[in-house]
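Entry 14. Structure prediction run on the chain below.
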Amino acid sequence: MSGTQTSQGYVSDIPIVRPTLAHALQSEWTKVKTVRSTVWSLIATVGVTVGIGLLMAANTDDTDYSMNPFTLPSLFGIMLGQVGVITLGVLMVASEHGTGLIRTTFTAAPERYRVLTAKYLVFSALAFTVTFGSVTLVTLLTMVLHGGPGAGPHSLGVSARGLLGGSLYVTLLGVLALAAGALLRHSVGAVTAMLGVVTVPTIMPTVLLMWETTTGLGRWLIGYSAPVAISTLYGLPADELSASGPWQLLVLAVVTATAVTASYRTVRRRDV
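Output returned:
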């Protein structure tokens, strides 16, 4: 251990640096790269999104895109790839509670708001980059495979907006999952809760539409279910049960913001 002995006592040669948000961001990025579960979640997200998308593209021909956008195969990929993003969001915080590493984290960085903010920022940037990159790759490869004379003209601007909107929606689902992980502190419980958030609005309307008294609720759930929301954001035609894509995105943003606010209050108050 290096240091200098003076009349005033021991003085370390290591400079004292006040911790900042930049240090917390670097720490969280290091965890993402080195923790095996997060690495595999990223690989699974990319593999499923690209793999399913290309599988769908391989089973179509040029004429299928005379009326449909080239982004259609990536839609099927992102529908399943969102599960990987949700799992990654939960693991960003719940895995540390499971292993006890969160105690070390908060000991090294007692400012809990800064730690949680770093987790949200790193995850959001990573989730959006991975999701948008995957669906863009599938779309470009689909254009290469089926951009022949049989395909109709498609606006690249419209396609780009669909990819951006769908990627943002899935990223918000992941942020909501991170908040759930912070609130529940249990990986399996948080993942199960998030899968319920995604699947219940898709399945439950089938039952609710059977009775006249619950028809209104069933129609509302269909319009705000994840598959319908992503499809609408992709620019696909919406039926009478669907809300507009921006409105669905806004509703999810409000729900996510509420959960994030609750996570800050909870992490601040309770013991680890």
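The two ends are 32 Å apart (CA to CA).
Filed with the rest of this week's runs.
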